[in-house]
Design a protein that fits this description.
By secondary structure, the chain is α+β, with helices and mostly antiparallel strands. The chain is built from 4 helices and 8 strands, in the order E-H-E-E-E-H-E-H-E-H-E-E.
Length: 173
């Protein structure tokens, strides 16, 4: 089974999700590889639109050169961190998505209702790298729960729990 490292971006608007998939599909960037013979090889992104359950539209963005087996070594962890930096950098300029996260197989990690529950019981804080549109927090404020201080400014339209660098752990991630 493949464990692909990618970004999962949720939109409540089908056209926004499709737009993100079209915009980022086949974009390229270069990894800073540990192995200098690979340094000149550009990585090509793939991006796909997926329709989830009720009003949950997803854009998945990834690069096959990161990993297909989870984070199997320090070099894959380093590539995953570089991918995170690229994705989060691009997302800072995208005002219309609802929430996003990167990781190994994060597809449809939460729908809107599940995220509201996670916010209420503070399990939302376990999602390292979670980016949430500020307007969604105003929906959650009705739950009489203040925005956790762990969320920091990400862009003019979003807050996030800053993503820690990906680490390789002996015995698997």
């Amino acid at each position: 089974m493949a464990y692909i490292y990618h970004a999962s971006i949720r939109s409540s608007n089908v056209w926004q999700a499709k737009f993100l998939a079209q915009k980022y599909h086949n974009q390229t960037f270069s990894f800073n590889y540990f192995n200098p013979t690979l340094a000149s090889t550009p990585a090509r992104m793939w991006a796909e639109f997926h329709e989830g359950d009720w009003h949950n539209y997803w854009t998945y963005i990834g690069v096959m050169e990161i990993t297909r087996s989870g984070i199997a070594d320090a070099e894959e962890a380093d590539r995953a961190t570089q991918f995170d930096n690229v994705i989060y950098g691009m997302l800072r300029n995208e005002p219309y998505f609802d929430f996003a996260i990167t990781g190994v197989e994060p597809a449809e990690f939460r729908n809107y209702e599940e995220l509201a529950e996670d916010f209420k019981d503070k399990t939302i804080l376990k999602f390292n790298g979670l980016v949430v549109r500020t307007a969604i927090f105003s929906d959650f404020i009705g739950l009489d729960v203040p925005i956790p201080t762990e969320f920091q400014p990400f862009s003019k339209t979003h807050l996030w729990i800053p993503k820690e660098p990906v680490k390789y752990m002996e015995g698997g991630n």
